[in-house]
Design goal:
The protein is α+β, with helices and mostly antiparallel strands. The protein is globular, with a radius of gyration of 14 Å.
Length: about 130
Amino acid sequence: MLISSGMSWESEYGYSRAVRVGNFIAVAGTTAGKDEQGRIVCEGDVYAQTIAALQKIERALNQAGARISDVIRTRIFITDITQFQHVAKAHCEFFGDVLPAATLVEVRALVEPGLLVEVEADAIIAEQ
């Protein structure tokens, strides 16, 4: 099952927001993105950008039939490692009870200037 958020980047660059194979869901690198006017969402605020990215991930998981509680791994890419506490706070708000395996690394830049953080997630829906 391929999940799309409807963003033009997905068709332009040939990827899906998320892919579900059996009970496994991989959610692509997700940023806060841009608003309808083409402005970076929450520009300059890494905490708010992380929340926005995690909300997008949650929507993709829901479309795939999963929940935040099904997440087993996250990967976080941040452009300024000195801001990691803000990202960690947002991550904990979503995953504090789930405690997925997590990686957080600093990167030189993301695809669009002004984007400060990008998050990937993997989930497994437990068999009922």
